[in-house]
Amino acid sequence: MLSIRRFAHRSFAWLFASFHPSGLPARGADTAPGPVSLERGQWLSMDHGGGKVVTCTHGHVWVTQAGDPRDVLIAEGESFACDLDTLTFVQAINKDAEVVVRDRR
User: Fold this and answer.
1) Which pLDDT band holds residue 5 (cuts at 50, 70, 90)?
2) Beta-bridge mates of residue 46
3) Per-residue pLDDT tens digits for 10-67
4) Which domain holds residue 21?
């Protein structure tokens, strides 16, 4: 399940998601087959990010996976393969961004 929610600060996003993971409005891959536009500060969440590849097609995004101490920043044209099957966030940083999320093949 993909969900989009806008928060100004990422720690609040983590707090919100940890208490209300099912309360986020759903935007699944079947309803958003193409690129997903994110405004600066807006984030996309995936309940189970493992096996997904996030490609940034515009701007810069921050990717983090629950339980993973890494902060992954990807720029336009770069991709990141999510390697943990946990709650995963993708957030537009500095300016608006666009991402494509697909299954790893």
Assistant:
1) low
2) 2, 88
3) 444 444 444 434 333 334 433 356 899 999 989 899 998 999 999 999 999 999 999 9
4) 2-103
CATH of the domain at 21: 2.60.120.10
Contacts of 63 (CB under 8 A, 6+ apart): 54, 72, 73, 74, 80, 82, 88, 89, 90, 91
Give me the number of domains the chain comprises: 1
Condensed to tens digits (0 to 9), the pLDDT of residues 81-102 reads 999 999 999 999 989 999 999 9
